[in-house]
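Hi all, long-time lurker, first post. I run a small reading group and we've been trying to get comfortable going from sequence to structure in the token notation. Rather than ask abstract questions, I figured I'd post a concrete chain and ask someone more experienced to write out its structure so we can walk through it together at our next meeting. Sequence below, copied exactly:
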Amino acid sequence: VLKEAVAEGVLKETDFYRQEKDVIEKLKASPLNRYSYLPDRLQDLILYKLQEAADSGYIKLQGDDLMCSILHYGLGLDKGLLKILQRFDFTKQIPKLVYIDVVEATFTLEECIHTVLCNLLGFDILIYTPTGYKNLETFVDSRAFEEHTMNEFLYNMEVPKLKIPSEDKNSGFFG
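-- Answer (accepted) --
Happy to help. Here is the structure in token form:
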């Protein structure tokens, strides 16, 4: 995405590195903006958080690899996630992401960038790894998360079919 933007003259390679304020506006106005149909405030939030993800140092990549990866994966968020962000009310209920990781493979770069981006967007995130295997550590710096170990590891597990309770319209005391 970054290389396309540079080739089309929308951005200069160093724009994101210099943290120029008009870069977000250039990207927002460019045909590369896959979120142009969203309200301006939501586009601004996502694009500023992409810049923050690059500046935070949480992703273990450098230079062009960092910016290209963040823009590529950050501009390809799932539509379901975008719907959650559109309904997101920062003052009431904070969205939660719960990962249950029971496989031997670590998280992909895309999964790591999406997780960091969701964190910066305000999501509470819990990653439960009963095996104790690595997941985020391959691409995410340890300063980005807090780790708790229970010293009892479980193997050969399957992810349970969790049913998320629906929101009832009951506004009573116990609702």
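A couple of things your group might point at:
The first helix runs from residue 2 to 7.
Strands lie at 96-100, 124-128.
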